[in-house]
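User: Good morning. I'm curious how S-adenosylmethionine would be positioned relative to this chain. Could you predict the structure with it bound?
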Amino acid sequence: MYERLFAAIYDRVMVGLEEDFLADWRREMLASVKGVVLDVGAGTGANFPYYNPQSVELWCLEPSEAMWSKARKKAPPALDIHWLPYRVEDRTAFRHLPERSVDVVVATLVLCTVNDPALAAEHFFRWLKPGGKLLLIEHIIADQPWKIALQKLVQPLWTPLACGCHLTRNTPALFHTPQWKIHFEEYENHWVRWYRAVLEKTMAEEESV
Ligand SMILES: C[S@@+](CC[C@H](N)C(=O)[O-])C[C@H]1O[C@@H](n2cnc3c(N)ncnc32)[C@H](O)[C@@H]1O
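Assistant: Good morning! Here's the predicted structure, ligand included:
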């Protein structure tokens, strides 16, 4: 029930951030992606307008039917989209999209919400072809102790209100490992601290993840 309300208001709640910087970040990051693309936690399809339908075969992992029904309406007709109604931690999705089959994994505003971010990172690695790219936009833990204390104070109220979103995740640390080569990363404060990055799956042993 609440999930449906969240899906109904999500785009309206986000409009300020989109106009401020998120839409520009999405455009810059997604305009040149090509091949098999996996959009994890695709939500209401906020990334859809920025994919080039001519060069992308899009797979979306989205467990919420309420979110997906909004996304479906927004999808440009020319965009080839396959919906996988699973959580990123659920290995069932590998039956449809096998390991080493994806050129680009896109994760925007989702690692704040998933139950197990480390397992999600492992699955991104498994899905990607060697040399494949991971594109991230996330809000993360603040960079000043007083802000972190405030985030920790607010979190117990915020998380249920925002359908599982966490304010204090140190998402970049998940990817500062030998498995990932960093092509680009940037931190910016827009009310909370934001992180965007372009990472590449390295040839590091897949067995080690
Ligand atoms: C804050 S929304 C972000 C939506 C979109 N990616 C964006 O950039 O606006 C988070 C989305 O992740 C989905 N989600 C939550 N837990 C998930 C999980 N474990 N695996 C995949 N998606 C998940 C939610 O249903 C929701 O649609």
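The longest strand covers residues 128-140. The chain has a mean pLDDT of 95.
Let me know if you'd like a different ligand tried.
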